[in-house]
Amino acid sequence: MPDDSILIRDAMVMTLDAGDTILPRADILIRGNRIASIGTVAPEIAASAGRVIEADGHLAVPGLVNAHMHSQSGTMSGFGDRLSHPVFMWLTQAHTSRRTQDEIRLAVLLCAAQMLASGTTAVIDHFPGQRFSLADMDAVMAAWAETGMRATLAMRFFDGEFGDILPRGITWPPELAAAVREVEILKPHPLAQLREQMPDIVARWHGHAGRLQAFPAPSNPDRCSDDALLFCAELAERHDLGIHTHLLETRAQAAIAATRYGTTTVARLEALGILSERWSCAHSIWIDDADIALLAKSQVVAVHNPESNARLGTGRMRTPDMLAAGIPIALGTDGSGANDNLIMQEAMRSAALLHRADLPDRRNWVSARDTLRMATQGGAKAMRLEGQIGALAPGMLADLVLYRLDAPWWRPVNDPVSQLVFAETGAAVALTMVDGRILVEDGKVTGFDAAGALSQIEAMVESLRRRNADLFAVAEAIAREAP
C-alpha cells in the first residue's frame, strides 16, 4: 500500500556535509517534511513510496537561503540607474508606501515566484520600509504562508530619526524642507506601540505552519533609540528569536554614529550589552578592525549583499577579512529595487569574484565553496535554523532543489560546486521542494497561482503611482537638488 513518502531516485547529490560529500548516484527518501535517508533505498521501501521522481541526470542541492531582501520592493526591478543612495531611498518610499493588504500580498507572490523558480527555498524579509499596522503584518505573513516558502518576517521599524537618507552639506529650499518634514511615512514608530504590536505578531505567527518566523528588526540601529534596541534584545531572548537589521551600509551612517555616540555602531551595541549571535546584520560595510573583532567574538552573522552594494556604489563588505576572523557570513540579494532580481546564484558569483583583483595572494580569495556555504548554512544560521536546513542529510528538513544537468553550462560536469556558483543562473531548476512539498515542477511554480498574481502587477503599480503622487514629487525634488 503506497504511503505519503516521496522517493527521489538516482540523482547526483551535493550533501554540503562537513566533508563536502558529493554522491554520484543516490536515492533521497522523504517522509513528511524531513529527509529519511540518502543512499540506496531497498526495493520494498521504493515500492511503498507514494511518489517516485526519476532524477537521473539531475543534481540535488540544498535549497538556497536569501538572508536579506525586501518584499515591498519586488515591483521595482530596473526602476533607476546611477542614483545616489539618498535619492534611491526616497524613490523607494514613493514606490512602496501606502499599500493595501492585497498589494502587499501581490508583491510577496511576485518575489516568491522568482526565488522558488531559481532554487531559493528560504528567505528573511525585512518588511516594511515605513511604520506598520498589525493588518500590514498579517497580510505579509499570510502571503508568505500561501507561497509555501520558509520565511522569516523581520519586523522592520525605527523609533528615531531617519536622517541618513537626506543628502548632507546642502541648503534645502524652504518649500522642499517643509515637504520633507510633512511626509508622514517616515515619522518614527512610537516605542509604546511597538511593545504592544511585536509580541502580538510573534504570538500569532512565529512557528505558523512550521515554516514562518517573526524577528524584531531595527531598520538600522542608528535610526533607533537605546530603549528600542534593548526591547528587541529582550523580546528575542524571551521568545528565542533572532534580530535582523541593516548595519553600516553607507559612509553617512558611519559618520552619524561617530558624531552622535562618539563610537561605532557596533561598539554602541556592545556597550548596550546586546551584541550576540542572535543578530544578523545586512551589508556591514563601514566597519573597522575593532568592529570585526567584536562581531567575531559575539558570532554575529554578517549578511553580504554584493550586488546591491555595487549597484548603489555604497561600498564593499570586507568579506575576506571577516572570513579570516571567523565571522559567520550569510548571503542576500537585497530588494529588487537595489538589485533588480532575487537570483541567489548571481549573488554567490558576485561574492566570490568581488575582491579578487585586490588580493594578489589567491589563498585569500573567497572561494566558490565559501559562497555556497554562505548561501546555505550561513543563511540557516541567520534564520536560527542551523542543523535543520542548509545541507542534505537524514533528519534534515526536506528543503531541496533538483537542477537539470543537460543544460549547456552543466556539460560536462567538471566541479558541481564551481558550476553551481559560477555557471548556473537558476535557469536549470527543474524541481523545488520546501518542507517536503513540491512547489516547482518541470521548472514551473505549482505551489500557488503565480501567473494570476503576476497578471495584476501592472495595474497595482499604476494605482500606487497615482496614490503616491506627493511622495514622488518629494523624491524627484530631492533628486534635482542633490543628484
Task: Kindly describe this structure.
It is a single chain. The longest helix is centred in the N-terminal third of the chain and has 17 residues. The chain starts with 5 loop residues before the first strand and ends with a helix. A hairpin with a 2-residue loop joins strand 15 and strand 16. Helices cover 40% and strands 20% of the residues. Helix 6 packs parallel to helix 7, helix 14 crosses helix 16 and helix 15 packs across helix 16.
The major β-sheet equals: 9 strands, mixed
- Rounded mean pLDDT is 94
Tally of alpha and pi helices = 19
Helix content: 40-55%
Taken from the alpha-carbon principal axes, the silhouette is globular
Flag low-confidence runs. none
Oligomer: single chain
What structural class should be given to the helix and strand makeup? alpha/beta
Distance between the termini: 68 Å
The proportion of residues in beta strands is 15-25%
Care to count the β-strands? 17
Radius of gyration: 22 Å
